[in-house]
Amino acid sequence: MPLSHPIRFGANYVPSAGWFHSWLDLSPDAVRRDFADLAGIGLDHVRIFPIWPWLQPNRGLIRRRGVDDLLTVIDIAAEFGLSVAVDLLQGHLSSFDFLPSWVLTWHRRSLFTDPDVRAGLAAYAAAVAGAVAGRGNVFAVTLGNEVNNLYPANPTTPEASTRWAAELIDVVRAAAPGLLSLHSLYDATWYDPAHPFHPADNVDLGDLTTVHSWVFNGVSAVDGPLGPATVTHADYLVELAAATSLDPARPVWLQEVGAPRPDVPEADAPAFVRATLEAVTANPALWGVTWWCSHDLDRSLADFPDREYDLGLFTVGHRAKPAAAELASAIEECRRAARTAARRPALLCDVDLRTEPERRAEVAPGSAFHTEWVRLRQAGPLAIVTTGRADDAGHLSARGIDAVLTQA
């Protein structure tokens, strides 16, 4: 993606009425009201989440009504000039897992390793990706929302996880050859040494890399809600991804980022939005930013972690929150500014996450490497480069790196 291409800005769509349960009795008018909110602050896309067991309640049945409802939401997005990324496997959403009965109870089997489940998933992926590919405003299909959250309830190994994702990426590409095909994982894949989904999967599988930046992973405890470690965490993840990829030009999509309470108090949310975007939009690898999430969660719905209720840019009553106004302002400024290929230094990292996933803790928030990167990042944009590529002039040039720094 050339640097002159504008950064994309969007929202992960959480319906204001009924949360994702609204798919059970879709109201097109409610969707229109929600999308009017998002278009009104200058967003250009939404990421939407059809619920897997409601579309494929049996391994041999894909509900046409469910697919039609998905297409209706896509068409409504087009009415507001919004392009759409579709996630297939929900899967995991806001602490709840949505799995069909044919992988549970007496039928319990791992969706990552069982051949019958994988065959059912392939049929589902082909049907849904093929259906949405016919809509001109759809640009991407992601296998699912943070599918690695479904481990360990669905046991797997690193080898099986890679094969599972690679097979489904091939299915999506065959069914929807004009769309981006993507694999989405939460940050245990970057930081947890024992996690069976590896960093290489993020940067090898699919057409671009996605990262999800959540400061409740411990980074906000380093220096507080507006500290440099917290507001540069999204940029740090983008850099880890860029440093791990074999392709120095591979774009990185910040597919989820949000201001969760209590890590980011409500009064600090606008400043968090501004500082986070100022840091990450300076990164030449960045393809786009998709905020989590569009609308708050109605507190009449029970049993969610408390932080999930107030993550929206808008209230359930469609009032734009201060974070939404700050996001809109930042988007306008970013689109006015020319995107230039500025040079920057890189901090040398002796951990290669591609080949040494067992060393992931050495780059996790609070590690010596992360601490030094945050310290140096305060002086301006700072890349990350691994030891094996530090002398590769072509790699450094492609990523805009003009000097390599070592840890103090």
TrEMBL record:
State the Gene3D superfamilies in the record.
Glycosidases
Q: Which InterPro entries match?
A: GH
Q: Can you tell which superkingdom this protein's organism belongs to?
A: Bacteria
Instruction: List the SUPFAM superfamilies hit by this protein, alphabetically.
Output: (Trans)glycosidases (SSF51445)
Q: This chain belongs to which protein, by name?
A: Cellulase (Glycosyl hydrolase family 5)
